[in-house]
Design a protein that fits this description.
This protein is of the alpha+beta class. It contains 3 helices and 11 strands. It has helices at residues 10-20, 47-50, 60-72, and strands spanning 2-4, 27-30, 37-45, 54-55, 82-90, 111-116, 124-126, 129-131, 137-141, 146-147, 155-162. A hairpin with a 6-residue loop joins strand 2 and strand 3 (37-45). The longest helix is centred in the middle third of the chain and has 13 residues, at 60-72. The two termini are 16 Å apart.
């Protein structure tokens, strides 16, 4: 698990303001592994759904610009192709588990990047490693992982998977 530098460029701040804004479209989704609800915004649909990664959101291009800027400011991020780009938001609810189920985003080899837009806590756990997020931080990892759920504030993240 590797901590990534997130440059706070004008593009990043524009994307963050849009995603955290009052009029950003979120869609209620049920987690199939844990049976709890969260909110999702698909930018680039996973290939398992459409047969190939497919643009879903009008905000995709800005997210791609921001992700490119993150890649340019961090070493060891060789990307052949993007698989999925998504936003997730979850509120602290007493009915939610403390830690989500261990899962992988795809059934084939890939890498994950999570960009944390809020400072709601909830570490990402990959094997024996834990990433303790802060607002405007990001981590890179691969393999089975899970997330501790927020206890006090809404956690909003951007997720990228790639090969």
């Amino acid at each position: 698990m590797k901590r990534l530098f997130v440059p706070k460029t004008r593009d990043y701040l524009d994307l963050k303001n849009a995603v955290l804004g009052e009029f950003f479209p979120w869609y209620r989704t049920q987690n199939q592994l844990d049976d709890f609800y969260f909110y999702s915004h698909v930018f680039l649909e996973r290939p398992e759904v459409a047969g190939f990664p497919k643009k879903i959101s009008n905000h995709l291009e800005l997210f791609q610009v921001v992700f490119t800027q993150i890649c340019q400011n961090n070493d060891d991020m060789e990307i052949n192709y993007l698989l999925r780009m998504n936003g997730n938001a979850i509120e602290p609810l007493s009915s939610n588990p403390k830690i989500g189920a261990v899962h992988e985003d795809h059934t084939f080899p890939h890498k994950n990047v999570i960009i944390y837009l809020t400072d709601a806590g909830g570490e990402t756990i990959c094997g024996d490693e834990k990433f303790f997020p802060e607002e405007d931080s990001a981590c890179l990892f691969e393999g089975p992982h899970c997330h501790a759920l927020p206890e006090k504030d809404r956690r909003v993240v951007l997720v990228v998977t790639y090969a």
